[in-house]
Structures are given as C-alpha cells and as structure tokens.
Design brief:
The complex is a heterodimer.
Chain A lengths: L2 H24 L8 H17 L16 H24 L1 H15 L5 H22 L12
Helix pairs in contact in A: 1-2, 3-4, 4-5
Chain B lengths: L3 H12 L2 H19 L5 H8 L8 H26 L8 H12 L3 H36 L2 H12 L1 H5 L4 H16 L1 E2 L6 E2 L5 H4 L4 H20 L16 H22 L6 H15 L12 H24 L5 H12 L6 H6 L1 H30 L6 H20 L2 H19 L5 H23 L6 H4 L1 H23 L16
Antiparallel strand pairs in B: 1-2
Helix pairs in contact in B: 1-17, 2-3, 2-4, 2-17, 3-4, 3-15, 4-5, 4-6, 4-14, 4-15, 4-17, 5-6, 5-14, 6-12, 6-14, 6-17, 7-20, 7-22, 9-20, 11-18, 11-19, 12-13, 12-14, 13-14, 18-19
The chains are: A mainly alpha, B mainly alpha.
Amino acid sequence: MILAHRICGLILLLLALACWLEGVRVWDEMGGTGFLPVILGGIFILLGLGFFKREPAERSQPFPWPNRKSWRHLGLALLIMFVYILTVRWVGYPVATVFFLTALLRFTGNVRWPLGIILGLLVAASTFFIFKIWLNMPLPAGLIGI
Amino acid sequence: MMSTVDLLLNGFTQALTPTNLLFALIGSVLGTLVGVLPGIGPTSGIAILLPLTSFLPPTPAIIMLAAIYYGAMYGGSTTSILVNIPGELSSVVTTIDGYQMSRQGRAGPALAIAAISSFVAGTLGLLGLTFFAPPLAEMALKIGPPEYFGLVVLALSVVISLAGQSLMKGLASATLGALIALIGIDPTSGEKRFTLGNTELVGGVDFIAVIIGLFAIAEVMRNVEQQTEAISTAALRKLLPRLQEIKDCIGAMLRATGIGFFLGVLPGCTPGAISFISYDLERRVSKNREQFGKGAIQGVVAPEGANNSTTSGGFVPLLALGIPPTPALAVLLSGLMIYGLQPGPLLFEKQPQFVWTIIASMYIGNVMLLILNLPLVGLWARMVSIPYCFMSPLILLFSFIGAFSVRNNFFDVWVALFFGVLGYLMEKVKIPTTPLVLSLILTPMLETSLRQSMGMAGGSPILLVTRPLALIFVIAGVVMAAASLYARSRKPRIKEYIVGDGKESD
C-alpha cells in the first residue's frame, strides 16, 4: 500500500470525525443545520476506508515527488510567499512587493540581482498604479503610508 | 402597439448615437482589461468601475456598465487559457482544455475560439432575451426549491465524469469541497459551523481564493518544482483556429447557448455550475471525447459559450423581474437603482426606450468585443512563451491581489496560499481538484433547496419526488451518473480525460 494513500485515508477519517462532532453539536432536526455535516461524515468514513485499499490502476505508478533540488526551490518559493503575506500589511504593498518579486526572481528563477531588482521595482510600481491609484483598491500602505 | 422588432429597432437608433457607441466602446475596453487582470472577475470589475459611470446620464451609464460586464466575461477566459488562473467560477472549466491547448502552442486558436464562441452564444442569447424575456421570467418564477434541488443533483452527477482515473478520489475531492462550502454561518439557522472559533471563518471561505489557490498557485508550485522554461516551448503555429475546426464547433456553440441561456434565466443557477454542465454534455456527445482534458477545442467552446449565453439569460430575470441571478448582475442592479430605475415587470412598460436601448447596445457591445479581441489574440498568445522564471512571480502576485480584492481581506490571501499547497499535494496524490470546485459551488444551493423543500412539506422530502419537474431533474441526474459509471467500467481510458489526474502517468 502506498504511504500517501494511507495518509489520505487517515485524513479523511479525521475529517469524518470532525463532521460528526460538528453535526451533533449543531443538530436541530432532520434536514437541519447538522444534517449535511453528519451525511458528509458518513461519506468521509467510507472514502477513508477505501483509501486503505490499493487502487489497481496505480499499482505500478509511484507518485512523482520532487527531488532534493526541486524541494529546495519549492521550499524557498513557499517561504517567500509566506513571508510576503505575513509582512505586507506592516511593510506596505510597494516595498514588500519589490522584495517579494526580487526574491522570487533571484532564488527560484536564478535571475541576476540587478535585473531582479529592476523588474521588481517596475512591476511593483505598475501594479501599485493600476490597483491602488486607478482601481482604488485598498492595498496596505504599511509604515511608509503610501 | 409596437412589436418587439420595432422596439428593438428603435433601441438601435438610440444605441447607435455617437455618445452611446463611445460609452459602449469604453465599457468593452475597460471590461476586457479588468477581465484580463488575473483574479478580478466581472463582479469586482463592475463594482470597481461603477463610480466611473456616476457622471453620466442613465442610458449611457448602464450601457457602459453592461459593456464592462460583457467585456469582463470575455477577458476572464484569457488568463484561464494562458496561465491557468480562472478569474471567476465560470472560467474554471475553461482552464481544463484551454490551458492544455496553450501548453501545446495553441494558445492563439484557444483564445480565438473562446472569443468566437462567446460572440455567437452571447448574440444568440440576446435574441432569446429580446423575444422571450417576459414569458421566460414568469416561467422561472414557477421553479421552486424542489426543482432547484433536482437541478443540483443533475449538476452533481458531473462529478463522476470529472473524477479522473479513480472514482474514489474524485468523490473524496467533491466531499471535501462540500465540507469547505459548509464553513461559516448557516444561512438558514444562523448557526456557526466548522469555524473552529476563528472569526475570519465566520464569513465562510471565499470561492475565488480557493480557485486561485487550487489552480494558479498550485500550478506555479508544479512549474517551480519542474523548473519549467515556459508555459509552452512549442512554436506558435497558427493564431486562429482552422475553418474546419470552427465548423466542427458550431454544434458545441449551439448546445452551449441553449444550456447557458435557459439555465441562466433561473435565479441562483450560477454560471460556474452551468459551464460545468455544458462541458460535461459536450464531452458526452463528442466523437473525440478522449481528447477532452488534453486540449480539445470543444472543451473551450462549451464553457465559454455557456458562460456568455448565461450572461444574456441572466438579464431576463434582472430586467423583467428585478431579480439578479448572479453576483455580478446584483452589482449591475445596484447601478440601475442608483439612477432611480427599478427593474421589474413595469420597466418594459414604463421605460421601453431605456430597456430596448440597453438590449440593442448589448448586440453592439458583442460585436465590438469580437473586433477588439480577435486582433489581440496574437499578443496574448505570445505571453505563454515568456520564460517561466519571469511569469511565476507575476502569476503569484496577481493571484494574491485577486484573492485580496474580493473582500479586501488578508485572510483570503492565506486561504489562497493554503489551497495552493493543497492543490499541489492533491495533484501529487492524483486527486483531481475540479470535483472539489464543482461541489464547492453546488453545496450551498443543494442544502438551501433541500431545506426549503422540506420546509414546504412540513419536514418531509416528499416534494422532491412528487413535483414533476423536480423528479425529471433527479431522474436525469441519476441516469447521467449511471451512464458515467457504466462508461467507466466499459472504457477505462475515458477515465483519463480530465486534467489534474492521470496526465502525469501518461
């Protein structure tokens, strides 16, 4: 049995438990607030158990997980995204976006620093103009206040 | 009394005045631009651009807003096809074959056929709006919760077709979508469900953030992992589809028009669900169904056509009854009300010139959009050959902006990132993401219609099987599900048609 399948099955069983607990908590009547959660819980149980059974079609097809280098790229990309979303409110859209784009271009795209910085500045400025100035979207101003 | 044709011709004389033409053009251009911006769909597009019309008299203002709506619907398919970012629910299905066509160097024909299909379906839909608006609106009012429940069952039967290689995985995906749809306040009882004590979850999980995550961010993660050079490294062959291809698509366009228009008339029947139904029907009737999910041109025609005829169909309840069937039209309704216009049965009688000028301007807007969009196909199509190291940061940035823009809330950006990672992992474990989206769209409608139906019968579900139309829909859904299951057991290769499952193993 493929480990990933087993993990999926386990997650589905946990979701089933969550659905039932929530369904019971909010249960009022047949067809009421808790009805669908309880039904979904039942379906999750069946599917979760099903995942513990190997699928014939995939017996010879291991999942193509990334290699070490790809993991590094992916991890970096995720880290940059995470830091960007976390900090953009405090740092402000223009500044955070320049750093975000430059870092992505450099670390996941292997673009040279000068080009990365120029592109980061250009894109941040143009999107700031389109979304904040033109479309009046309330992008975070942050500490700089723009 | 003037006939419909006379009234329409009268509308054309008004709509073709230089001022109205100018605002239809401005609206079409702005709508297309907003639609092309990833993550910004027609609803936010109209909402953002609504203030721009405030200085205009009612007729040019509404003409401009309607043109923005049409333009945004047209533009929305561009990012779905080029970079796998559906800006709105109705464009999700377009990504399935449209993006595959782009990867094969056929972005030009995909964009062109989307524009042509949108034009044909949009225009035919307008004919329906012109000649059948009042009777259709009255008919739509007779469709109650049991019929809606039947319709949802029919739409949910599509999950089996979308399940990919493993039915169990498709069902797991759909069930997960249903669970996500339940997060937040229950609209009937007001009870919080699955909020885990988090105030951000009380408002529910936004569709757009989920879609952006599952499609755009997950796709970037896949490409970063594989160090993809460009979305397509294949040479751009032709920018327009072959004449034979267009001929082959005529049937698909007509079917999409019919489905989109008639279901679009029903308030609450979302364009997202309708495009799924249209795609599934097209796959079923297609001679080359094994190509679906691998870049079938009809796979672009069906959702795009349905999407645009839904737009026309949606104006039926909006103008004739004052009921906006989609969020985008709800914003448009607010635009009408700003000018003191109250859509409803009396609007056609009290302000015929206004109504028919708007309808005539939609015909003109459709032609304008085709003329505007076809020459741009070459420009857009070249986007897919831009090195991916430059594209991925842009896609991510637009994804975050798109997720943020829906409710101006950073929580939605986190949701997009979460679903990006989830979508990536689902792809690895070969769980298709499309059933999740379909179920996410349909579950609220399913639950509401079920509860209303039971409420109508004193807590019994009897109405679901005693109302003829509801029963027909339910039976059709069961038959379609059974047919899909039969096809799966007979032709295992059919299972592979859908993107997101199985393509890695091909």
